[in-house]
Write a structure and sequence with these properties.
Order of helices and strands: EEEHEEHEHHHEHEE
Number of strands: 9
Organism: Marinobacter litoralis
Protein name: Cytochrome c biogenesis ATP-binding export protein CcmA
Radius of gyration: 17 Å
Strand content: 25-35%
Enzyme class: hydrolase
Number of helices: 6
Bound molecules: adenosine-5'-triphosphate
CATH class: Alpha Beta
Mean pLDDT: 93
Shape: globular
Keywords: ATP-binding, Cytochrome c-type biogenesis, Hydrolase, Membrane, Nucleotide-binding, Translocase, Transport
Largest sheet: 5 strands, parallel
Pfam families: ABC_tran
Amino acid sequence: MPEPLLQAVGLECERDERLLFQNLSFSILPGTVTRVEGPNGSGKTTLLRILAGLNDAWTGDLSWCGKPRDQHRESYLRNMLYLGHRPGIKPLLTPLENLRALMAGRRPLNDDALLQALSGTGLSGFEHVPCRNLSAGQQRRVALARLLIADEPLWLLDEVFTAIDASGVEAIESLLLQRAQEGGAVIVTTHHDLNLPDMGRITLGVGPSDEC
Ligand SMILES: Nc1ncnc2c1ncn2[C@@H]1O[C@H](COP(=O)(O)OP(=O)(O)OP(=O)(O)O)[C@@H](O)[C@H]1O
């Protein structure tokens, strides 16, 4: 069995004195897509933010490639891509400018590569339009263009299908499968039905034995 990219042992998180999950353990192997599922408020976003290093209100152990994640935070952050449930783009900037900003401090890419990514998410003709003038789905697509130029092996995607039409959902599903086939791994939360074979599951909101 290959070494897990990410491993969680005994995760516990409480918010506002309410226990969201405890004894939560799972291994994310290379080549896999895993869905975090559970009802509204069960802690899916919270879990993804913990995994992304954006929430420190938890206990337990997290390892990255067999080593404690927080002792190798720099390597982890370099190899992990997190897209949150808000598109996280700046309304006054154009799609191209947003994508440049999203890539800042990551892999330097020229505008041709960025324009190609925007075209790949169906934004041809809108590259230079301020994002505040785009539809909700188009704004989401600006953020999703990041997936087309991502070299990070681990993707953490929180509700990224929101406002995306059926053909867009299909295109993103292909990207997730491709990342897995390339030896990466994807953890995704969504209320959409996904059509992905062999998808792993982490189920929250089922009581103290939460586990995949
Ligand atoms: N900023 C916050 N401060 C305090 N509690 C919060 C905060 N954000 C969320 N919570 C609480 O944490 C719990 C889990 O929220 P979370 O957003 O992780 O759930 P979720 O499973 O992603 O929900 P949904 O399916 O509705 O997106 C909820 O009960 C919520 O009230």
